[in-house]
Queue: 2 jobs
Job 1
Amino acid sequence: MNPVIPRVSTLSPNPDRPPRWGLYGGSFDPLHCGHLLVAQAALEELALDRLFFIPAAQSPFKPGSRPAPDAARLRMLRRSLAGQSRTEVHDDELSRGGVSYSIDTVNLFNARHPGAELFWLIGADHVPTLPQWREAEALAKAVTFVVIPRPGQPPASLPSPWRLRHLRGWPLGISSSEVRDRIRRGLPFAHLVPAGAADVIASEGLYQNPSES
C-alpha cells in the first residue's frame, strides 16, 4: 500500500489568490501510509498548492520519548516523497533542536513567505489541547487548523478565533507506535509504510530495541 500524491500538473496554482500551503508537523517515527493518505486528502480537499512535512525534534506532547535519529527520519521522508513535486520536507525544527513548538515554525513561514495562507494539519485528539499550546492566541490568528479524523474520536470544535476545517476522508487508522511495535515483535510491517521508509528501516535496523518503541 503506497499512496501516490498527485503531481503539480493535476492541480495548477490559482494566480488570483494567495498561495495555500499545508503544514504537516509530527514525529514521523516512522512515516507510514496513513500520513501519505492524509497528505493526499489535504492537497485535494483544500486545493493546496504545496504541503510541507515538518518532522519535530522533540514533540511537546511526548517529553519522555526517544524518537529514531533525526537523520534517519529525514531519510524516510525524503525517500518516500521523492518525485512528488507538490510536497516538501521542511527540516528547520530538527535544525533548531530542543522542543518543537508550532508557533515558532509558523512565524518562520510567515517571515519567509508573507502572504501565504497557512493550514496546519492536526489530529482530532489534539484539538482540545490547542488553547494550551504556546502562544495560542497568536497561533489561532495565524493558521487554519485542518483536523484529521481519528477512529472513535467525535468531531471537535473550538470557539472563535480558532478556525477549524475537518478532512472528509477516512479516519486515520494507522499509528507509528503500531508500526514500531510490529517491527520490534518481528511481525510484517511493509504494508503499513511507504517503500522508501521500509528500505531505511530495514537497512538501518530501526526500532529493534524496545526502548525505541
Job 2
Amino acid sequence: GRAGTVRRLAVDVSPLRRVNQAIWLLCTGAREAAFRNIKTIAECVADELINAAKGSSNSYAIKKKDELER
C-alpha cells in the first residue's frame, strides 16, 4: 500500500481557470505584502506584477505556482 500518500497528477485545466488562478495569486501576494506595511496596496500590486513578469522568485504568484507544479 501507499500508506495514505497523496500523489498529485497533472491534468488539463481550462484557460479561464488558469487566468483566474493567476489573478487570484497576484492579488493574494499583493494583499499579503501590503498587510502591516508602510507601502500602499498600489505599490504592492505594482511590485507583484513586475516580479511576476520577470519570473522572479520574489513574486508570491511565481512561488505558489512552482510549489503547486512540484
